[in-house]
Structures are given as C-alpha cells and as structure tokens.
Amino acid sequence: TGTVRRIRALVAIGWPLAQIAPRIGLYVTALGHIARGKHDTVRATTAEAVAAEYRRLSRIPGPSTRARNYAAAQGWHGPLAWDDIDNPDAQPELDPDTDHKPDQFENARHVAAEIQHLAAFNVPEHEIAARVGRSQKYVHEQLAGRRGPGWRDQLQEAA
Fold first, then answer.
1. Which letter does DSSP use for residue 147 in this model?
2. Three-state secondary structure along 45-107?
3. What is the mean predicted confidence (pLDDT) over 84-89?
4. What's the whole-model pTM score?
C-alpha cells in the first residue's frame, strides 16, 4: 500500500514514471503496474528503493504537467494528503483549496512558467514543446509574448 501511494504521490506532484523508474532500478512498465495497483505485493527491495526515492523527491515539484494532470484524473493524491502513507486504512486528507483537479487557467499558468524556465536555459523550442506537451508553434508564441495564460480573455476585453 505504501509503495503504491508513494509512487502515485510523486506522479501527483509532477514526477513522471519514466523519470522515477530508472532511479529505483525498474522498467517503466513494471513501475506503472505497481502504481496502477496491478500487483498485490512488491518485493521488499522495491519497497525500500521507492521509499528512499520518495524521501528525496517528495519535497521537490516534478517537471511534468502531464504527470500532474494524469494523477489528478486518476484521483491520486500528493505527499501532503497522507498522515500515514503505509496504513491501508488511512484516507487522504484533502484540502479543498489545494488538492483539486487543476483548472485550465491554472494549467496554462504552470505551462507558461515551465516554458519560460526552460527557455532561460537555452533549451530549444522543439524540445520545450515535447517536454510540456504543446506544439512548437505554441511555445514560440509564448516566448514571443503573443500567447499567455488568459490570452483569449484579454482579446475579448480589448474588443
């Protein structure tokens, strides 16, 4: 239970399974099976590796909006939702102000910030587009200042 919840919590804060798996020595498909609850048990060594990586990553927001959105759609909860992550009877403590499915504007703000951050490190536009799950044109428009969170609303207000 704790292993599944730890993996899901990391995905919920933006860590994709593809980045977690090599850190703990598993294939992505195997980690995905564990995260989706397709295994009733896991090896002790796997549980220990997941717990160690969880201790390292659970305080650092991950880089992937797609992972966060996937976790939200699955109903997975982040690290702060669990008082006792290993207790099978424990229920997540939900904060209605912070533990919700992100709205479109919130996602757009996050993607825009991620694009700006990556561009500051001279990451090419095509690579930024692949990382944030948007088209290269979208990324280019963001960086040129012609498209940002709430840009449609701004156009309607100007009209």
1. -
2. HHHHHHHHHHHHHCCCCCCCHHHHHHHHHHCCCCHHHCCCCCCCCCCCCCCCCCCCCCCHHHH
3. 90
4. 0.61
Let me know: does 142 contact 135? Beta carbons within 8 Å.
no
d(CA 126, CA 9) in angstroms, rounded, equals: 29
Whole-angstrom distance, CA of residue 155 vs CA of residue 85: 46
8 A C-beta contact, residue 115 and residue 128? yes
Determine the pLDDT at residue 6: 96
Query: 155: pLDDT confidence band, cut at 50, 70 and 90?
Result: very low
Nearest to 13 by CA among 56, 96, 76: 76
Distance CA 16, CA 7 (A): 10
